[in-house]
Amino acid sequence: MTGLVLKLGPHERVLINGAVIENGERRSRLAIMTPNAHILRLRDAIHPEQVNTPVRRVCYIAQLVLSGDAEPDVARQQLLRGIEQLSQVLTDHDSRTQLATASRAVLDNQPYQAMKALRLLLPREERLLAAARA
Can you give the residue range of the structural domain that contains 98? Predict the structure, then answer.
């Protein structure tokens, strides 16, 4: 079997190409055969009131593309601009690697991969913000 395989827990919700799908009572597996389908696990979604840091803002833009709530061409420019701004602050090797991965994904029209790379920066951002508050 090729394609993306989603493993869903009971009553877990997922957004596929703009449609919310909820799993039933038992764990299940879905095979997504359509290439480049826009998929977002709703448990991983960033809610609008949580968009309160620079990394979360950029992640949220990618999420809006996945949900179909943002124009891909406009969002691409915003994502690239946001990644560039983050690269001015997050200068360590690991962060640069994730930002480069996110940039490539944006340029390759892969918003999920961009969001995935950017989400890996959230713990680092939280530590930096906590240190700045202290």
Answer: 46-133
**pLDDT, tens only, 46-83:** 999 999 999 999 999 999 998 888 998 999 999 999 99
Q: DSSP letter for 42, please.
A: G
Element containing residue 28 per DSSP (H, E)? strand 28-32
Q: Could you report the per-residue pLDDT of 24-45, keeping only the tens digit for each?
A: 999 999 898 888 788 888 988 9
Do 36 and 64 sit in the same domain of this protein? no
Q: Is the same domain home to 73 and 129?
A: yes
pLDDT for 117 equals 96
**What's the gap between Cα 123 and its chain centre?**
14
**Residue 36 in contact with residue 51, Cβ under 8 Å?**
no
